[in-house]
Design a protein that fits this description.
Elements lengths: L1 H38 L3 H42 L6 H45 L8
Helix pairs in contact: 2-3
Length: about 140
Amino acid sequence: MDREQLKEEYKQHYRQLNELKKKHAMYEKKARIIKNLDEMDPSPVMERFQSALHAVKERIAMAEARLEVYLDDQDESHLFSAQASGSETNSTSARSRNIAEDEEFLSKEKAKSIVNRIRSDMGIIQRELDEKAGKLPGDKTVF
């Protein structure tokens, strides 16, 4: 029975030793990761983030400009068609044309309001991004 008891004690000791080795390896790995993070320079990461943010802003500005140009062109064509149709004398066709022009004008105004809402939403998003970026610690940041 002594031999069985010694054998069990040895197994228990061996299990504890293995657990300690695993914990030690895990702590060494954590220490290496922390050391590497401490040595990491965050400026290239932040520069890439800033350039990506700038590219997004640029694309949004381009899309807004295109939409504005399109809406302005539509407004100008609306004015030209209204001036050209002023010489007609048929009242029913003029009324139906006025109704169609009013509907078109309303749809353009709706599009303009959508553009303005998108702009305000993008402004809110930009402010949120700026706030989040401001809250990030500048000395050591990892993404």
